[in-house]
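Can anyone check this?
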Amino acid sequence: MSEQNSAATSRRRRGIYLLPNLFTTGTLFAGFYAIIAATQGRFVVAAVAIFVAMLTDMLDGRVARLTNTESDFGIQYDSLADLVAFGLASGLIAYLYSLDSLAYYSNVAGKLGWLAAFFYTAAAALRLARFNITRGGAVEKKVFLGLPSPAAAGLLVGFVWVSADFDVSGAQLVVPVFLLTVAAGLLMVSNVRYHSFKDLNFGERVPFRYILFMLVVFVLIILDPPRILFLGFFVYAASGPILALRRWRRRHASRG
């Protein structure tokens, strides 16, 4: 009987938790679908798919913690899904929407276009790898080192969504898309610190104004999703360098 119990326990340990990994699969599916939509020139649909991937990515971790179903398998699977959605798919959307038009200018310019998209994708992979080896550390509990890959995707794909929603050709925006792609990649692999918001406790009482603020944000997103979401991710991406500059100035002033 004891041998049977131990075999059953071993089988359970070798299994995977279904619920959080379903959300992770949703992230992977949304990223894959975004690639399909982008290759068909449906950039608004592709951008929406990436933002759906952000939602499922946020839910899988919270569900795992709430149900006590975190596992090493789930962590690795989540990183691979994030790489597809927020690295490969997002970089490809930027390339197919705008960066590929650099090939019309010269062969060298065309190479710069796909190299920028590759740099962004590689930076996302490096950011995720660094996050995995520092996960659970004292630093990553309070802040993120480097721009998180979902936020980088929100910045880059959000710009594409706004532009496509205005029916602006990507060829007209090749310079800002190129700069945004490279900047997002650099921020991901930088040591710039970003607030992780992991210290938020949704079970605690909060002032009424917090609820009012969230209601206003929700209404604004519903009224104009592409512009409000892009603005939100742009402000978050800019907050890291701005706060780093403020800390540097304070240190410089104290030494002086």
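Reply from J.R.: I decoded it. The domain at 15-255 is CATH 1.20.120.1760 (Four Helix Bundle (Hemerythrin (Met), subunit A)).
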